[in-house]
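Structure in, sequence out. Go:
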């Protein structure tokens, strides 16, 4: 029966409940017969179920395929998903794979290196390795460059920030690769997610829009990074980063991600804390070419006000001639300010007027101000803003 089925199979998903020995018995029966048309093989054992029966034979795959088997009986295998189990990582097994998913906490680092180097035709790669205790590849061994020239989607989950950075520093990927990263950070100042040298990750070198969204409870954040969609024709994030972290603040975001060259920053769901003005000042001082700032409700009213107060503060700078004591606004390239869903208190309206007036007086006026879905705006304040900004758009609830 197995032989008859194997010759017809095109896709096989085997989900073992807790006892991986059943999977072993099934796959051993498959090894003895060819499956010439099988393109998709999914072997699923819950990797997070601590009651599952597992030993090193099954984690290494030796108990399933045997040490000498090379999967030659699966000549056109293209999609391989492994949850809670590995198979032997010898050469030439994966050269034709286009989809690979590995969710195996106990997977050994040397196996990971061999695995990735043997998959040059991958278009989709997902790694979920919460048990990893060291970088996937050695930072001291630059020879371990892993080239995946066709990869369109990379998903990394449950790896510490430092391990993610270590893996990415040794990957060579096309500019079209899209990244989805899920991690957690326990430190007050967590490690950077991305390597400082991203020359082999060109898609991550041209991010010009960053969207920052705190979780509702302030214990997580989502950061979306976009490339110039006018150049690419696609307005989808090149990087989506989800981080479980306490506290989820602007400082944490800047610790995880370099936003120096962002031209557009969107902040949503930010909850005010002591020192929030200092956080905004650090943020604005760290971006050298910010053109558009968008602040979106839900957000504490104080967070809106603090951002505006910082934008209205003069910053001491030195001139080219070395003179000290000159004052200029932060973010001198800023031309567009958008407030969405704001509840416009008197304090907030005063801060908004101060920003627009200060920038105009300093010769770097805003070109556009959008107040969308706001309420409580004083008509007299709107008239004053229209005198200070070339284009003012107000849409009240």
């Amino acid at each position: 029966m197995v032989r008859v089925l194997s010759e017809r199979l095109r896709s096989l998903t085997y989900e073992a409940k807790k006892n991986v020995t059943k999977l072993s018995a099934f796959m051993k029966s498959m090894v003895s017969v060819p499956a010439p048309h099988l393109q998709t093989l999914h072997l699923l054992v819950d990797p997070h179920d601590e009651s599952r029966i597992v030993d090193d034979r099954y984690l290494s795959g030796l108990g399933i395929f045997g040490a000498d088997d090379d999967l030659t009986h699966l000549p056109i295998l293209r999609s391989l998903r492994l949850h809670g189990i590995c198979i032997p990582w010898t050469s030439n097994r994966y050269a034709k794979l286009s989809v690979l998913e590995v969710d195996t906490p106990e997977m050994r680092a040397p196996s990971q290196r061999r695995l990735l180097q043997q998959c040059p035709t991958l278009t989709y790669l997902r790694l979920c390795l919460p048990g990893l205790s060291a970088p996937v590849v050695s930072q001291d061994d630059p020879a371990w460059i892993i080239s995946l020239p066709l990869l369109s989607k990379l998903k990394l989950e449950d790896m510490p920030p430092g391990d993610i950075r270590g893996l990415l520093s040794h990957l060579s990927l096309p500019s079209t690769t899209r990244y989805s990263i899920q991690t957690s950070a326990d430190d007050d100042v967590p490690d950077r997610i991305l390597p400082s040298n991203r020359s082999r990750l060109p898609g991550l070198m041209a991010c010009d829009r960053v969207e920052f969204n705190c979780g509702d409870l302030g214990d997580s954040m989502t950061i979306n990074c976009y490339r110039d969609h006018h150049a690419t024709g696609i307005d989808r994030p090149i990087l989506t980063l989800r981080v479980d972290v306490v506290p989820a603040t602007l400082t944490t975001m800047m610790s995880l991600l370099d936003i120096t060259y962002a031209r557009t920053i969107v902040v949503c769901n930010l909850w005010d804390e002591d020192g929030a003005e200092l956080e905004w000042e650090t943020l604005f001082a760290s971006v050298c070419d910010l053109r558009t700032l968008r602040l979106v409700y839900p957000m504490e009213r104080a967070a809106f006000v603090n951002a505006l107060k910082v934008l209205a503060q003069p910053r001491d700078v030195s001139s080219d001639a070395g003179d000290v004591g000159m004052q200029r606004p932060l973010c001198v390239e800023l031309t567009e300010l958008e407030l969405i869903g704001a509840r416009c208190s008197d304090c907030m309206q005063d801060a908004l007027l101060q920003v627009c007036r200060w920038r105009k007086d300093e010769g770097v006026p805003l070109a556009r101000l959008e107040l969308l879905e706001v309420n409580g705006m004083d008509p007299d304040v709107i008239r004053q803003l229209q005198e200070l900004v070339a284009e003012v758009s107000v849409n009240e609830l």
